[in-house]
Amino acid sequence: MFIWGVRLLDIRLLDIRLLEVRLLEVRLLEIRLLEIRLLEIRLLEIRLLEIRLLEVRLLEVRLLEVRLLEVRLLEVRLLEIRLLEIRLLEIRLLEIRLLEIRLLEIRLLEIRLLEIRLLEIRLIEIRLIDIRLLDIRLLDIRLLEIRFLDIRLLDIRLLEVGLMGGLGNAVKYILAIKILLIILSMLFTKCFINISNF
Cα separation of 82 and 60, whole Å? Predict the structure, then answer.
């Protein structure tokens, strides 16, 4: 259980997690000044109950993030503040969230160059106040997104830029499949080289 903490500098060059299970996670206060992750791979991530009262992130940079299966049953966040978030490539194959509650979320600048999500299932999502000043997404590909109940009382987005949002679905699917094949081949090649070295 992580109650509170302050991280001034968090740099991770390679973060690979095959199986991550969190039954109960409670964070009362979390402050991250600078967080940089070059390559993050998570095969199976299961979180049953996650509660975060106050979360502040000043600068977050992620170059490549791959998540195969992510399951979250109950997620509660009271106040989340993110000043600058940069993500170059994010790939999520299957994401399942049963109940997500966020009271106040503030994001000043969010930049995402390429985001690929194959299947996303969210049963109940409740957001009272969601404020995003500048949201820039170069290419956002979502093949299948299922949301049963989405409640947002106040959603404020001053400027939202999607540079390739007008592409047809067929073009997006082809791009997503090509990128996935390239990344998977690179990962398998890396794993094969590491195994042969042993």
Answer: 8
